[in-house]
Specification:
Length: 237
């Protein structure tokens, strides 16, 4: 059924969460094995907050480098299928809550990263931008040559989403005929609220567990994204 809809529509948007990248070996936050179940001196929500970053950057980066960055992760079948469908002119945009950059690595061009990216980092003093290596190779808190602290361009707790990114994502969702939502519990706001902007024909939800939006969907698929998109990708060859 999903393959038939993808074949039918020409303006598709994919909205994804942590479940998109778990099959690349990146754990999500809220599953049994996720970060929220790890034991640290502080709760993960506290460590990855803006105020904690400012007050205790050394501890922030210790956690961030250990638990938030996966430099060896590679795109999985979902990332590859979405990039393929974009190349076909069907998927017009990917809206993601992930910060791993795997959609772009797979070849997707129009990606709205609601929560930023680990691959972008900037000096809080002079504004100079750095790649991921600046954080990975730093001993402790990464510093710019000007002496300023290098901050990951990711949205921490207590910080707002980037306005330009949000506007682009909303416009893409509003203009879509088919919205496919996958790998997200749809409980994290304001990101989850973007589904409310969809006015198109069909809403598809793919998630292993139920979401608050299931009753509004035309199709609900409680399977792994990998199994769903593998069929789509293989059926398109």
């Amino acid at each position: 059924m999903l393959k038939e809809l993808i074949d039918t529509y020409q303006n598709i948007v994919f909205f994804g969460g942590a479940g998109v990248s778990t099959e690349s070996g990146i754990p999500d936050f809220r599953s049994v094995d996720g970060l929220y179940n790890e034991i640290y001196d502080y709760p993960p929500e506290t460590i990855i907050s803006h105020s904690f970053f400012v007050k205790n950057p050394k501890e922030f980066f210790r956690f961030y480098k250990n638990k938030m960055i996966y430099p060896n992760a590679a795109p999985n079948v979902t990332h590859k299928a979405l990039a393929h469908l974009e190349q076909q002119g069907k998927v017009k945009a990917v809206v993601t809550q992930n910060i791993d950059g795997l959609h772009q690595m797979a070849g997707s061009k129009c990606v709205y990263e609601l929560h930023g990216s680990v691959h972008r980092n900037y000096c809080m003093n002079c504004g100079k931008f750095f790649g991921l290596d600046a954080v990975l190779e730093a001993d402790g808190v990464p510093k710019c040559s000007c002496g300023g602290t290098i901050k990951p361009d990711v949205v921490l707790y207590e910080e707002g989403l980037d306005g330009k990114t949000v506007s682009g994502a909303i416009a893409a969702i509003q203009n879509a005929d088919l919205l496919v939502v996958g790998g997200t519990s749809l409980t994290v706001y304001p990101a989850a609220g973007m589904i409310d902007y969809f006015r198109g024909d069909k809403l598809i939800l793919i998630n292993k567990t139920v979401t608050p939006f299931d009753s509004r969907a035309d199709i609900v698929i409680n399977e792994s994204l990998g199994s769903v998109f593998k069929e789509i990708l293989e059926g398109d060859k």
